[in-house]
Design brief:
Structural class of chain B: alpha/beta
Number of domains of chain A: 2
Number of helices of chain A: 9
Distance between the termini of chain B: 30 Å
Distance between the termini of chain A: 30 Å
CATH class of chain B: Alpha Beta
Shape of chain B: globular
Shape of chain A: globular
Helix content of chain B: 10-25%
Oligomer: heterodimer
CATH topology of the largest domain in chain A: Arc Repressor Mutant, subunit A
CATH topology of chain B: 2,3-Dihydroxybiphenyl 1,2-Dioxygenase, domain 1
CATH superfamily of the largest domain in chain A: Homeodomain-like
Strand order of the largest sheet of chain B: 1-4-3-2
Strand content of chain B: 35-45%
Number of helices of chain B: 3
Largest sheet of chain A: none
Number of strands of chain B: 8
Strand content of chain A: under 5%
Radius of gyration of chain B: 16 Å
CATH superfamily of chain B: 2,3-Dihydroxybiphenyl 1,2-Dioxygenase, domain 1
Largest interface: A-B, 21 and 27 residues
């Protein structure tokens, strides 16, 4: 049931883009659907579905990728404490931040920090470098966790028919 | 006559609206504005950069079939066109001035390694970074 976003009304897409821009500008803030829907001037029910059609990911997952992208940049480019970065990028607890970060990137915040900065992107304007490091979150974090758990637990977990 | 890039085009949803934005708000000048039926060749240029024209083109016939035009309109409206960069002398001053006249900013001015950059969009959805380079 894939929906071709080219069939969406460009005026609607432009307003959905505004909601995406607002998340980009303030990814540390809470973005419940009713707030995003108001930015795009559509109903809440219409918003989540239209956003996913337009941008390929549900709005809350898009927000997660932006938070992780920003946290990654701060870990790489600053020496601020990880706790401070977690709260500044929108997480309510260090535990949730660390777990989500690992689930999405496959690395812990401290190990990302330990790796050196991406010198090869030194000639790209800094505002675009960050986007180049955005995690490509094609499945839900919960699904990612489930699959990894399944890999670890192995096939014995499967039901025998 | 020198060699080099002379014209780069953008897709816009409405050429009158784009003209009002690029000329009326950003301060570009009209270079060429000619029509042939439904087709309109519209280019503007930055006052300090007469060697480069920025084309403001509307997807549609006779250049595109309707399905292609719709795809292009959707891509622009989703902000999926490549990044554009406008160099300025004073990013914060330009931000204040442009915001006051209704330019839609997506990012406030930020210091990055001595450069200051801000982000805005044209009415169609094309995204610009406005960068004040370190001197």
């Amino acid at each position: 049931m894939s929906v071709d976003s080219a069939s969406q009304d460009p005026e609607l897409l432009r307003r959905l883009l505004r909601a995406k821009d607002r998340m980009d500008a303030a990814s540390h803030e809470d973005w419940p659907v009713h707030r995003l829907a108001r930015v795009s001037r559509v109903s809440e029910a219409h918003f989540a579905r239209s956003f996913k059609e337009a941008f390929g990911v549900p709005p809350h997952r898009y927000l997660l990728t932006r938070r992780i992208e920003r946290a990654t940049a701060l870990l790489r480019d600053t020496d601020r404490p990880i706790t401070e970065i977690a709260f500044d990028t929108g997480w309510k607890s260090l535990g949730t931040f660390g777990r989500t970060f690992r689930d999405i990137t496959g690395e812990s915040p401290s190990s990302i920090r330990a790796r050196t900065a991406a010198h090869e992107l030194g000639r790209v304007p800094a505002c675009f470098v960050s986007a180049a490091h955005r995690p490509n979150l094609t499945i839900a974090v919960s699904e990612k966790r489930r699959r990894e758990a399944a890999d670890i637990n192995g096939p014995e977990q499967k039901e025998v028919p | 006559m020198s060699q080099g890039v002379q014209e780069v085009g953008l897709y816009v949803r409405d050429q009158d609206e784009a003209l009002a934005f690029y000329v009326g708000k950003l301060g570009f000048r009209v270079h060429t504005d000619v029509r042939n039926g439904d087709y309109r060749w519209l280019t503007v240029q930055h006052p300090d950069q007469p060697s480069l024209q920025l084309g403001l083109f509307k997807p549609g016939p006779p250049v595109h079939d309707e399905a292609t035009a719709q795809t292009l309109r959707a891509i622009v409206a989703k902000g999926a066109m490549p990044p554009l960069v406008l160099g300025v002398d004073d990013c914060r001053a330009a931000y204040e001035r442009l915001r006051a006249i209704g330019v839609e900013f997506t990012q406030e001015p930020m210091n990055r390694y001595g450069n200051v950059d801000a982000g805005f969009r044209d009415p169609s959805g094309n995204g610009w970074k406005m960068i004040e380079a370190r001197r």
